[in-house]
Amino acid sequence: MQWSWPGNSKLPNNHLEYARRRDAVAAGLAARRLDALAVSFGPNLRYLTGFTGSNGMLLQLPDDAVFFTDPRYAIQSAREVSCRVWVCTGPILPELAAEARKLRVRRLGFESSRITFEASRILESALQRSATLVPVSGWLETCRMVKAPEELERIRRAVHTNSAAFEQALRHVREGTREQDFAAELEYRMRRLGAEKPAFETIVASGERSALPHAQPTAARLRAGELVVVDMGAMQDGYTSDMTRMLFVGRPGSRVKRLYNAVLKAQAAALAAVRAGVTAGHVDRCARRVLAAEKLAHLFVHSTGHGLGLEIHEPPRLGRRDRTRLAEGMVVTIEPGIYLEGFGGIRIEDTVVVTRTGCEILTPTPKPLRIV
User: Fold this and answer.
1) How many CB atoms lie within 10 A of CB 129?
2) d(CA 199, CA 244)
3) 3-state secondary structure 90-101
4) Do 172 and 109 fall into the same domain?
5) Beta carbons of 359 and 353 less than 8 angstroms apart
6) I need a labelling partner for 118 at 20 to 30 A (CA). Which of 65, 160, 350, 361 fits?
7) What are the pLDDT digits (tens) for 155-177?
8) Are residue 117 and residue 212 in the same domain, yes or no?
């Protein structure tokens, strides 16, 4: 094992924000009757430390924090992490357990929904009965719901990169283009514009397949008279964006126009409902009321939206039974949709920031049905 002190290295400018987040977690340990918390999930590690590698754990104590990683990340962790860093020459879990024993930790919280059963057994065994493992779920994800100004700026960049990539790729799309070629062009443009990678597998689905909410691109070619759903997001500086826009190959008929306008009205109603203090379920119900008036509510088969940030899907979930109250600084998607088997699907999605009196729509891409 090897200790390093990141304070001697060049740290990112926002390392004080990471320290503040760790302090907030430390302050919450006593209320949960914990002596320490073991953090293993990548996005939560990045939220608390700034670490961008693939192998690490944090032992958060009431008055200290120790980050564990392996020799591959010795240099990187020294540059990114502002608490003590322990570079392990062997597996991390036994080293973390040994430090917990040394510090006389009696109740050790762990991310029960983020760690494998096998890993929890290894950790339990390595503690040698010196401590009780206490399952903790959702605590850090709840902390992450309200974004700091620096996080909001990163999300804005990801949103604008995503929208710019869409506009650039659209210039290369025409009747006969394969779905998978369109998706590849979208992802190529994202990367050229600064994205690290897509935030999720890009969805391009045409014709009847557009009725599959999570369709994967295929070799099918865009054909005249068909709807095309494009659901895409960019990950940039660790933060995600999400947008869905609809295309039509040729001239849309009256049925397509009517259905499209119904979804657009439902999205507008949901956007108008977003503000600090309302529940996530209220926003969802506002979208469904519009579709119900159009006798289309039964075709809306998912929630109205979700939070995003370090992950593409984060709390809150804007579902009909979700009682989470929106707060200023949360970032959510608004994405009602309808799906008709044998015909096609229509979904319209923006990324928005919750404000005190409403919301700020971050997505700049226009929403009229785009004609190819």
Assistant:
1) 8
2) 13
3) CCHHHHHHHHHH
4) no
5) yes
6) 65
7) 999 999 999 999 999 999 999 99
8) no
Tell me how far apart the alpha carbons of residues 290 and 311 are, in angstroms, rounded to a whole number: 30
Q: Which of 143, 158, 190 is the last residue of a domain?
A: 143
Domain count, the chain: 2
pLDDT at 14 over 80: no
Domain extent, residue 31, equals: 2-143
* pLDDT range class, residue 12, cuts 50, 70, 90: low
- Spatial separation of the C-alpha atoms in residues 297 and 161, rounded to whole Å: 33
The answer to whether the CB of 243 falls within 8 A of the CB of 312 is no
- The answer to whether residues 310 and 150 touch, using CB atoms and an 8 Å cutoff, is no
- The predicted-structure confidence for 75-101, as pLDDT tens digits, reads as follows 999 999 999 999 999 999 999 999 999
Q: Report DSSP state, residue 214.
A: T
CA angle 268, 273, 278 (to 5 degrees): 160
Instruction: With beta carbons less than 8 A apart as the criterion, state whether 307 and 332 touch.
Output: yes
With 60 as the cut, is the pLDDT of residue 152 above it?
A: yes
114/157 same-domain check? no
Query: What span, in angstroms and rounded, lies between the C-alpha atoms of 110 and 137?
Result: 8
Which position has the token pair 């809150």? 316
Amino acid at 4: S
Identify the residue whose tokens are 């529940």.
279
Residues 236 and 105 both lie in one domain: no
State whether residue 270 is helix, strand or coil.
Answer: helix
One domain for residues 138 and 182 = no
Structure tokens at 4: 């390093």
pLDDT tens-digit map of 278-302: 999 999 999 999 999 999 999 999 9
Domain of 119, CATH number, reads: 3.40.350.10
101 and 178 together in one domain: no
| Rounded-to-integer distance, Cα 303 and Cα 300, Å | 8
Q: What is the band of 8 on the pLDDT scale with cuts at 50, 70, 90?
A: very low
> Which of 143, 164, 199 is the last residue before a domain boundary?
143
Name the pTM for this structure: 0.93
| Cα-based distances in Å from 361 to 158, 339, 347, 353 | 14, 25, 17, 7
